[in-house]
Design brief:
homodimer; alpha/beta; 314 residues
Chain lengths: 314, 314
């Protein structure tokens, strides 16, 4: 698929950091940035901009906070833009410096649909500082449809550049992606729509392709699929699919070989039955992550049934 | 998706046997058959019917040959039908006993498009013995389209029940599956069409769903995706997707836990970059399998480039 408007965003360090408390070395993040820049990736998300008043700085690596100095040690000016993510309610407005003084080009505001007003407030603040702004509505598979519609209509009135369709639980099938992509694109005319898929059911890549087919232009992926629990759409597959000659998948293969195969065998993101189960059942992966942390020795069938039991309540 | 015509075929022992020379114990195959029967799977493929004059019986486990006695030690009469696969040119016609004397219900003839006449000859022989017959055209992503069309038109004239769309190299994307499914369904009116997808690009499950959406009713899958190289559409995901109440995914989870997680860490089918590379480039996985057997220590980028070099020839 060659469509010049397509932008690829790598969020390996940000989403993958959920698996190791963002404890990536500066050398490694520098290599990742450099490799992704050489691969032609349009945006490279280097972490969260979390509120230091709410989180102990000692408990996480630097990519949970993305201080300007830390970013400048790993990123450099080039065609690839730096992005960071901030959560509604977990962001210190005063910690965001003007865009003119920052290497960051885009902020992505992560929100649940019920907090859309706060997300727009935060986005407006960031936009006024001169950044590109995206709003990523999480857990869309748990939204009531009128609330989602209203949120999209509110976002349509903003001057933010991008709104993301996010499958936090790895639940969506292709037909649901088609349905939601149509909704986002029709209610957000003039804006770009992005897609961020989780891989619980091995549908992260295919759902991203379905998004492309429907007209979505901002595509999230991570190196070797690294991300929370089952992880994300793998960057190497996405670049193998896209036909824009500016992309080169080889630097991503090199990063996988140097860093990610080893990390994956320690941290075990990717296809695991407990993650598949929460995906199939449209549940937050936290129970599956707890199951895996316990060594994954419990019965899969019993784990599956715990959710069925939970739904006996009326 | 609830469509009563849908038939699920498990080929774990047959396709998975390509990873261990069919050296599964009888106890394990008996457990697999029993679990799949309890899961409501319609067909259970227990191996190949390979010609004992062409292969040394000592070099493989019993599921490469599927002697009637071996099958009867692991399978029993129930709603799930036993199937076996035979390759054109590697099958002893005289070794196939009449269906009335066999526990086997279906033979699947695997063929390349150029050998379709031989496949039809073999299929006619098997059909006359009283079996259901399927023809599986392998490596369709390497076919010249007029040859494929002619093969389908020839198959339309037979009395075989099923013709399979097979993505041997894990190359097809959803739009290609849609295109080919339309072709198979329109040229094979009155027959069932099946789909057998490999998972090199993590598209085995999603492509199978795309086949269902287009009207394909025979669906191949394997437990925990076990199969050659990157493996196949995972049975547990497929049963999680289908809505027919006769299916129960729990016995598959139990089998995964008892056998397949351990086997996977030894045999390493599934998502590996060399398999992804041959999938992206529409190549037979044999070079990737050799790369993996070598310990997977070579450079992925150089492996990728070997194929680009090979195509410099004009």
């Amino acid at each position: 698929m060659y469509r010049p408007q397509i932008k690829v965003l790598d969020c390996t360090i940000r989403d993958g950091g959920l698996m190791n408390e963002w404890r990536f070395s500066k050398e490694m993040v520098r290599d990742v940035f450099d490799g992704l820049a050489k691969a032609g990736v349009d945006y490279i998300e280097l972490g969260y901009k979390a509120d230091k008043k709410q989180y102990n700085v000692e408990d996480s690596g630097p990519w949970r906070f993305c201080d300007e100095e830390a970013l400048r040690e790993v990123a450099y000016d080039c065609a690839s833009k730096v992005s960071v993510m901030c959560d509604v309610g977990r962001t210190d407005y005063d910690a965001i410096i003007p865009a003119a003084d920052s290497i960051v080009k885009m902020y992505r505001v992560a929100t649940y649909v019920k907090e859309i007003d706060k997300a727009i407030h935060l986005g407006n603040h960031i936009k006024a500082l001169g950044y590109e702004v995206s709003v990523n509505i999480m857990a869309v598979s748990h939204c009531l449809e009128p609330e989602l519609d209203e949120a999209l209509d509110q976002l349509a009135q903003t001057n933010f550049e991008v709104v993301y369709l996010v499958d936090s639980f790895g639940y969506l099938y292709s037909e649901q992606v088609h349905y939601l992509a149509d909704k986002y694109l029709s209610r957000l005319k003039g804006k770009e729509v992005g897609i961020h898929m989780h891989n619980n059911q091995q549908l992260g890549f295919s759902n991203t392709i379905d998004g492309i087919i429907k007209g979505i232009n901002y595509l999230d992926a991570t190196i070797f699929g690294m991300g929370r629990a089952a992880g994300n759409c793998p960057m190497e597959l996405l670049l193998g699919f896209l036909r824009n000659p500016k992309f080169d998948v080889r630097p991503v293969f090199d990063l996988i070989q140097k860093y990610f195969i080893g990390m994956q065998s320690d941290l075990r993101w990717g296809y695991e039955i407990p993650y598949a189960i929460t995906g199939i059942l449209n549940k937050h992966p936290r129970a599956a992550m707890a199951f895996m942390k316990d060594g994954g020795k419990g019965s899969f069938s019993e784990f599956f049934d715990t959710f069925a039991d939970a739904e006996d309540a009326d």
